Hints:
Layout: H1 9-36, H2 53-65, E1 71-73, H3 79-108, H4 114-156, E2 162-164, H5 165-182, H6 185-194, H7 201-204, H8 207-221, H9 226-271
Parallel strand pairs: 1-2
Helix pairs in contact: 1-3, 3-5, 4-5, 4-9, 6-9, 8-9
Amino acid sequence: MSKDKELTFQEHMAELASRLKVILYTLVASTIIFMALPADLSFLHNPPVFKPLVSVLLTYIRGDILPPSVRLIAGEITTPLELYVLASFALGVAVSLPVIFFQIYRFVDPALYPEERRMVYPFVFAFMSLFVVGAVFGYKILSPFMIWALLPFFEALQVEAIVYVMDFYTLVFILVILCGLVFTFPVIFVLLVKFNIVGTEILTKNRKYVYAGAFVLTALITPDGGPIADVALFLPIVILLEAGILVAKKYEKQRLPEKTAVETKSALVKAVKCRYCGAELRSESAFCPKCGRALV
């Protein structure tokens, strides 16, 4: 729709519905494609043997994170099918992210002024970048930490390390997404400071409580990883929060001269007007020339 056209509420809802349909159709189509996409074309010569691309990617994740001493089992007869659909959907969401962000952009962009676009887009880029960094951190560092932290307990109790396959992959998928979201908290905080919703003192004056809450959050995200996994996630969160405070303080400093100018202007207005009738005072007289009341 045209950016210059002012839409009614019903038209906004209709546009939102159409863009949600595009996102839904893209997710469904990409999921089906991954379910049907073969890893190679050898099945054309031997049709009964079909190796989907999803299975290759799951095997890569398993080899990248899981130690050789740990075995995966299905647990239930329907588990392989459930994992097959879940992994296809997760990959479908990953490849659909550009479409999702583009549809959000097309819906929000007409309502933004040029100066608002220049302000919001850097935050969007920072949000996406930190989400990717957090997801990679969750996959490459935190997930292996959680697995390796549990192995000594299996050895100490002389128990064979056998894990349900659905539990393993679900843990990895959830951990990657949560780490990506946690890494974006500083961007959200800076944005709130930018719009003067909160101030940096809410963190600087309550650091011990904020960090205690952050450590509890890491413990909830990594319930089975032990203290090593908690510290591994806690340290980058602290670094990102401190960096977010530094960036947010710059916005507060930029806003301070504007606030001072407004307060000065307000004070001047009050100084040259009568506090009783509002008449302008053109001299330093002790009485208002309009209402005659004493000004001191």
